[in-house]
Each structure stands twice: as C-alpha cells, then as structure tokens.
Automatic annotation (TrEMBL):
<feature type="binding site">
    <location>
        <position position="136"/>
    </location>
    <ligand>
        <name>substrate</name>
    </ligand>
</feature>
<dbReference type="Pfam" id="PF01168">
    <property type="entry name" value="Ala_racemase_N"/>
</dbReference>
<feature type="modified residue" description="N6-(pyridoxal phosphate)lysine">
    <location>
        <position position="38"/>
    </location>
</feature>
<dbReference type="InterPro" id="IPR011079">
    <property type="entry name" value="Ala_racemase_C"/>
</dbReference>
<dbReference type="GO" id="GO:0005829">
    <property type="term" value="C:cytosol"/>
</dbReference>
<dbReference type="InterPro" id="IPR029066">
    <property type="entry name" value="PLP-binding_barrel"/>
</dbReference>
<dbReference type="InterPro" id="IPR001608">
    <property type="entry name" value="Ala_racemase_N"/>
</dbReference>
<comment type="function">
    <text>Catalyzes the interconversion of L-alanine and D-alanine. May also act on other amino acids.</text>
</comment>
<comment type="similarity">
    <text>Belongs to the alanine racemase family.</text>
</comment>
<feature type="active site" description="Proton acceptor; specific for L-alanine">
    <location>
        <position position="264"/>
    </location>
</feature>
<dbReference type="InterPro" id="IPR000821">
    <property type="entry name" value="Ala_racemase"/>
</dbReference>
<keyword id="KW-0663">Pyridoxal phosphate</keyword>
<dbReference type="Pfam" id="PF00842">
    <property type="entry name" value="Ala_racemase_C"/>
</dbReference>
<feature type="active site" description="Proton acceptor; specific for D-alanine">
    <location>
        <position position="38"/>
    </location>
</feature>
<protein>
    <recommendedName>
        <fullName>Alanine racemase</fullName>
        <ecNumber>5.1.1.1</ecNumber>
    </recommendedName>
</protein>
<dbReference type="GO" id="GO:0008784">
    <property type="term" value="F:alanine racemase activity"/>
</dbReference>
<comment type="pathway">
    <text>Amino-acid biosynthesis; D-alanine biosynthesis; D-alanine from L-alanine: step 1/1.</text>
</comment>
Amino acid sequence: MSKVGETTLVLDLLALTHNYNVLRSKIDPDTKFLGVVKAFAYGSDMVAIAKRLEELGADYLAVAYVSEGVLLRESNIKLPILVLHPLASNFDDLIANQLEPSIYSINILNQFLDRAKEKKQTDYPIHIKFNTGLNRLGFSEADVDFIVEKTKENGCIKIKSVFSHLVASEDANERVFSLKQISSFKNISDAMTEKLGYGPIRHMLNTSGIINYPEAQFEMVRSGIGLYGYGNQAEVDAQLQPVATLKTIISQIHEIGLDQSVGYNRAFKATSAIKSATLPIGHADGIGRQYGKGKGFVTINGEKAPIIGNVCMDMIMVDVTKIDCQEGDEAIIFGSEKSAEQLASMANTISYEILTAISQRVKREVLNQ
Ligand SMILES: *Cc1c(COP(=O)(O)O)cnc(C)c1O
C-alpha cells in the first residue's frame, strides 16, 4: 500500500470483491444480493463501491435517503436502488431518479400514492416494510388487508418486495426472539402473497443474519457491514478483509518534560519525560473525543501509540516514547493491521460508528479500481 502525504482513507476494492464472494458463498446461488451503500457506503466512497458491486453482479443497492440515491443515479449507476427511509418531501426526486421507496406506514403509502398518481405512474415498484419487533419503521401485520386493497385499486404502484429487519441478528442470546421475528415475517409475507395474487421478493437478513440465520434468506439478503470487511463476530471477521484503511502522517514530534502537559485542558500530564507525536486528524475527521485520554491508539512503524490528552478538532497527540519514528512517518488509525472493530471497542462503540464517522474532509484513495 502506497505512502500517504496527508490523512487518507485508502479503499481496496479487491477486499470488497473478496467480501462479496465470501458472503455470496453463504447463500444459495439463486438468492438475490442487495448491497447496502447508505451513508457514503459506510463512510467509504459510495460511487466507487456501488460501481464495483454492479460489476460483481449484485442485484440491488440500498441507501437510507433519497439524496443518496440521486448521487448514485448522477454517477450512472443502473441497478435498482431501494431507499430505506424516504420522506414525502423527496418523492419528486425519488420518482425522477427511478428510486424505489420502502413504504413503511399508512401515512407514507397514501402520500406516495397521491404523488405517483399525479405523475401518472403505472406499476411503480415499491417495497413494503413490516415491523416484526424493532419498533422503528414498518407496518404491522394488521395492515396487510389495507395495503393489498390500496395496491389493487391503484394501478400506479406494484409491490416488488416485502421485507423486515432483525433486532439482534448478531446476538446468540436473542436467538429465540430472532426466530420469532422470522416466523412472524413468514406469516405476514405468506398472507401478502396470497392476497395480492403474486409473490413479491421477500428479504429479512442483514450481514449477521446471513451468518446466523441462512435458513431465512428467502429470495434476497441485504448486506452492508460484511461487504466492508466486518462481521460482528471474530470468526466472521477472520474470513473478511477490511476495505478501508485510515492513515495519516506525523506532523511534529515533541519532547515532553516531567509535569508538562499535552493538549487542551492539560488532560495529559507527564509523570516522566515522554515523546509525543502530533497527527493531522481530529474529531472533525471522525475520531471522536471518546478515543482520547488513552482509550484509543494508532499504529506507527508497527507499534502501538496511545492517544494522549483530549482529541482536538483537527489533531490528536499520541505517545511515541518507545517508538523509533520521525516527522513524516506514517500512522495507521485502523485498517488491515488493527481493525476498526478493535479501535471502536476501546471506546465502547461498534465498527459501524467509527467507519461512518469518517468525515468528507478526509481524502479517499481507491485502489484496484
Ligand atoms: C443498514 C441496514 C442493513 C445492513 O445491515 P448490516 O448489518 O450492515 O449488514 C440492512 N437492512 C436495513 C433495513 C438496514 O437499515
């Protein structure tokens, strides 16, 4: 991997290909695969990732919001795109860009029907989201008749899929609950199929669902974090490769004497002479304050350098007392050597959060495009 001259998120598309193949190998060959590329493809580069997924033969993409889908269409992505959380104020853009809405409530269904009629649509593909326990978005089983009736009396929409989302797919302690969700989804989707007179695509599994409940893959699965190289459990992490490596360089090295302090509010005080290195990455780049005061570390020349003191907006300082290093040397925040999951766990969070937090200020470099 090449040396960087500034803070850079290096994205390896070969790792994406590897992860895609690993995940595909865990499902039936005819099960469709939806790649989740919301939030800039989990903080990476949405367009580069979407293009590669398209080349790899993914069947669908999903984003959270309409604006994300519009960006994909502007970049000439042709795959069908499911918008997981559309809002009525964005329906014009959604239709103009042939994005497919998740319809999750009576209110949003009525609003979408009005707009689709006004725009003289026929058979506009929509996806019906059912709540089976997450209590976040989704219709309940009791809404099935209403949905079917509305769909039948309005030729402007067509139900392309029905789906739901697991609450705790990564948690073996919640297996009973997950199985209940799956059986409830099966009942609901059976009722939908029977009443509609055709069978929409059914999907319920995210990455950990694919790993832990492959029997519930139905006709499609939706994977996000796994594509980026993380599987929420060590055995799965071992089979995947992190797509993103966050790197920076040492801007300056300081000798810190006994009783001197480092950074704002003197949050680090030296109890012996140390050597600190200042790195051009801070909370504005996505390294939150929770990683400061010794919680997180970076890797410099293969050695651990703990973050000392408070994380600043644009900088962190790390302890390099025992590391042979110079200004200009590379520092790795996370990636292939130390995973984002490892760093996240030091601050009591999860890979998803640190990955998606990497701000747009950070340069992206795409390898193996
Ligand atoms: C984000 C999201 C996913 C992807 O989940 P991963 O755990 O990243 O695989 C799947 N489905 C829905 C509804 C989501 O919001």
